[in-house]
């Protein structure tokens, strides 16, 4: 099988790795780049545990051939925190007890990030739709939806405060 060098920007950092035709983005992230946030669940694209952002759009990385993403930008859950400080969505998940086993959490958070990037003030129905490709077997979804809505509120509040300070 011929190998291909794939150049991508992962969490804002230029990366290169070797990919066989059957190497998935998930395998490249975990095995070649050491990013373990995205999880291998069903390996069929049905559970969402491997969700990452590819050029800003949520994708199930177990189905994306790594050789097809040369030049793309990939964001994983590891790239959201600022050092030890969690971002709004991550912190809202912790504060709202939206994790139990944690297996689905990275995929849920990345789906939430994609939603909030395009819609900073979603309804509960819009959150449910955004995470509909992510399966959680532990929480019953209510804490997850609440955490995403809380993260959205925190971001809006911070944006409003920054706007007020800028006009002073």
Topology:
Layout: E1 4-10, E2 13-19, H1 25-32, E3 51-54, E4 57-60, E5 73-75, H2 88-95, H3 105-118, H4 124-130, H5 142-166
What key attributes describe this structure?
alpha+beta, Ubiquitin-like (UB roll), DNA polymerase, domain 1, 5-stranded mixed β-sheet, 5 helices, 5 strands, oxidoreductase activity, 2Fe-2S_ferredoxin-like_sf, iron-sulfur, metal ion binding, Carbon-monoxide dehydrogenase small subunit
Q: How would you describe what is shown here?
A:
The chain is 37% helix and 15% strand. It is an alpha+beta fold. It folds into two domains: 4-79, Ubiquitin-like (UB roll); 88-166, Orthogonal Bundle (DNA polymerase, domain 1), CATH 1.10.150. A five-stranded mixed sheet has the order 2-1-5-3-4, with helices on both faces. A hairpin with a 2-residue loop joins strand 3 and strand 4 (57-60). The N and C termini lie far apart (62 Å). 40% of the residues are buried. The model has no long low-confidence stretch (mean pLDDT 95).
Number of domains: 2
- Share of helix, binned: 25-40%
What is the correct CATH architecture of the largest domain? Orthogonal Bundle
In terms of structural class, how would the helical and strand content be classed? alpha+beta
| CATH class division of the largest domain | Mainly Alpha
Assign the CATH superfamily of the largest domain.
Answer: [2Fe-2S]-binding domain
CATH topology of the largest domain: DNA polymerase, domain 1
- Rg, Cα atoms, Å: 17 Å
What's the count of strands? 5
Q: Strand order, main sheet: write it out.
A: 2-1-5-3-4
Give the topology string: H per helix, E per strand. Answer: EEHEEEHHHH
Low-confidence stretches: none
CA distance, first residue to last residue = 62 Å
The averaged pLDDT comes out at: 95
